[in-house]
Write a sequence for this structure.
């Protein structure tokens, strides 16, 4: 699983070094509608508030590990920022800003995750403020709290790799709360104020999402940010992996249950939107979101769903543990559409396609 995340980082790095990696999906392309990663993470967080903390820790580890390698590749020695606390403020700001812009802001811009900018540096206390405009994690979502823990951890992990110290970060402003941009404060992990900030930020809080409303806006193509409504599938793959990485079997199962519910709600919204009630409506839905290509085939009493160009499945890694939510969603969607309780029974890869079997519940 870690390999998958590292591959996402390496592809992002290739894109900014003008070595355009090959397109993984010939007809759907490399991007996916923001709605897909957002609902995936937020519905899981809503069902299990501990998910925010899981995403945070997995994202921190991945960012720290990969940023460390990238910085060494750039020829920056591990002790480059040694004694950063004694640097004059201006020099500290300029040097770190350069590193962030040259690599990490470029990667995030290229993948359309958002626009990263270093806002303030307090060299003496090792405190950093970064802004992230057009954040993919929360664009178009409304919530009473900051939601962007994947990026909070990513920025903390990157700066930690540059400083060669343990750092942590949390949001002090979030677009989901109506703030203009998501803003993150990053500081030393052992500083009480940072520790308290992070545990408050990750503490389980109820989320009440209005999924149907967000889905309608997505289907209507309502523009959400200046970077557009799409984001690179690598971001989605990293996010999904972070959700299940601590205990893939367990989290794949709980994702399945959340997916079933999501599928049932989705069926109601898409039949209304497309004015189409047959099972074929899912092809239009998944296609419009650039999530996957889909074909439904009746096999006796079963319904087989053949998935192609599935965003969750990277070219090199075919892990079913990342597909729990999708299997559940298909079960919920199809049961609702054909008005018969179907259950997921099995799935298997057929060359690059994935075949999912739904059978009538006995
Ligand atoms: Zn945010």
């Amino acid at each position: 699983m870690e390999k998958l995340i590292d591959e996402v980082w390496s592809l992002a790095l290739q894109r900014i070094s003008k070595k355009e990696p090959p397109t993984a999906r010939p007809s759907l392309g490399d991007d996916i509608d923001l709605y897909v990663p957002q609902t995936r993470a937020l519905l899981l967080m809503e069902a299990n508030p501990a998910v925010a903390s899981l995403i945070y820790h997995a994202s921190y580890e991945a960012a720290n590990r990969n940023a460390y390698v990238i910085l060494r590749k750039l020829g920056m020695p591990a002790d480059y920022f040694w004694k950063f606390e004694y640097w004059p403020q201006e020099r500290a700001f300029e040097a770190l800003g350069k590193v962030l812009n040259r690599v990490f802001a470029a990667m995030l811009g290229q993948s359309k995750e958002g626009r990263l900018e270093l806002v303030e540096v307090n060299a003496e206390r090792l405190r950093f403020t970064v802004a992230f405009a057009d954040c993919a994690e929360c664009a178009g979502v409304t919530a009473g709290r900051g939601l962007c823990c994947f990026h909070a951890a990513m920025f903390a992990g990157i700066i930690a790799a540059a400083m060669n110290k343990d750092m942590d970060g949390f949001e002090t402003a979030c677009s989901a709360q109506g703030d203009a941009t998501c803003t993150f404060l990053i500081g030393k992990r052992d500083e009480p104020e940072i520790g308290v900030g992070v545990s408050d930020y990750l503490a389980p809080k109820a989320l009440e999402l209005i999924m149907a409303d967000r889905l309608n806006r997505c289907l209507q193509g309502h523009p959400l940010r200046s970077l557009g409504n799409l984001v690179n599938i690598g971001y989605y793959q990293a996010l999904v992996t972070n959700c299940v990485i601590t205990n893939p079997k367990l989290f794949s199962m709980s994702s399945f249950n959340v997916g079933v519910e999501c599928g049932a709600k989705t069926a109601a919204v898409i039949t209304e939107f497309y004015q189409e009630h047959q099972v074929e409506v899912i092809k239009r839905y998944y296609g419009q979101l650039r999530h996957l290509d889909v074909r439904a085939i009746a096999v006796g009493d079963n319904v087989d769903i053949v998935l192609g160009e599935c965003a969750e499945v990277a070219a090199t890694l075919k892990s079913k543990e990342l597909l729990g939510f999708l299997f559940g969603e298909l079960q919920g969607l199809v049961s609702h559409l054909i008005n018969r309780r179907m259950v997921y029974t099995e799935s298997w890869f057929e060359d690059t396609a994935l075949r999912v079997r739904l059978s009538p519940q006995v």
About this structure: Strands lie at 31-33, 115-122, 127-133, 167-173, 182-188, 230-232, 293-299, 302-308, 342-350, 353-360.
